[in-house]
Amino acid sequence: MRPVVLVLTGAEGLGTRLRASLGAVPASLRLHRFPDGETRVRIEGDLSGRAVILLASLDRPDAKLVPLLFAAATARELGARSVGLVAPYLPYMRQDLAFHRGESVGARHFAGILSASVDWLLTVDPHLHRVRRLDELFTVPAEAVHAAPAIAAWIRAEVRDPLVLGPDQESEQWVEAVARGADAPWAVLTKHRHGDRKVELTLPDLGVPAGRRPVLVDDIISTGATMRQAVALLRAAGSPAPWCVAVHAVFAGDAETELRRAGAREVVTSNTLPHPTNRLDVLPALVEGVRGILARAPAARMAGCP
Ligand code: R5P
Predict the structure, then answer these.
(1) Which of 7, 11, 135, 186 fits as disulfide partner to 179, beta carbons 3.0 to 4.6 Å?
(2) Ligand 1 neighbours by CB, cut-off 6 Å
(3) pLDDT tens profile 124-143
(4) What sign does the CA torsion over 87, 108, 125, 163 have?
(5) What are the catalytic residues?
(6) Is residue 300 very low, low, confident or very high in pLDDT (cuts 50, 70, 90)?
(7) Phi/psi of residue 79, nearest 5 degrees
(8) Whose CA is nearest to atom 7 of ligand 1?
(9) How much is the pTM?
(10) Could you give the C-alpha distances from 137 to 59, 114, 290, in angstroms and in order?
């Protein structure tokens, strides 16, 4: 039985292609916003006994959460055998610790809300730092696929003699994988964060060896403060203008413009979130991830796998 893919606002581009790749049966989801700001979800299509996949673009997540939860509940009421969530960008993952007594831990709370609503989750490069694994947060199967192969292929095609640089210690996990795939040397800077938009970075001792072209790679560009400061340090050290590559194009406010103004040579992102800087395609990784999850799921719960 073929699955159903229901696409929430913002994920239409990937949604059309995910449907086609999985051979999904036609179905649609529509949102109605009432004048008072409340939401009604309407699903059209036959969901009965099928694996339903919700695809959601979860940047600026708060307003998107209620429609997502309503969509999952409605899909179950319409007879879905299982309801999974593909969230190429998983928000709240950087809020993984209460730094002061009384603060919410967004990563844990958000994962708790999703776990109560869907049967499984698939994402791309979640920000795992103090929490090392998704299953420390989620009580349903939660898996990640990675953009490193797509980033490495892009570097191989576009940058001669690259030096792959991560702007902070946390970035080591994906920078190393990217550098290996691009057959390039790599290093990471050190970062201290003093506020939402205030970071302090230090270049590694080696600097940028002569003849090497720096490619900064991070998981997220949000305010752009991290990338901007890395660019400024490199330029001040006499390095050529660096490429700035990120998996998730969150871009708060004028972050992209400011980054270009700071001297980035080019800003490149993956299509986990739709943005004009998207050059890297995560769809093949997502399709493989969904197929794997549906194939591994017990037949009784996942009768809709392709
Ligand atoms: C956190 O350490 C992440 O890996 C990114 O470096 C960070 O989220 C980027 O945020 P911003 O663009 O606001 O500096």
Answers:
(1) 186
(2) 94, 127, 167-168, 170-171, 199, 218-226
(3) 999 998 999 999 999 999 99
(4) positive
(5) 191
(6) very low
(7) 100, 10
(8) 220
(9) 0.95
(10) 19, 10, 20
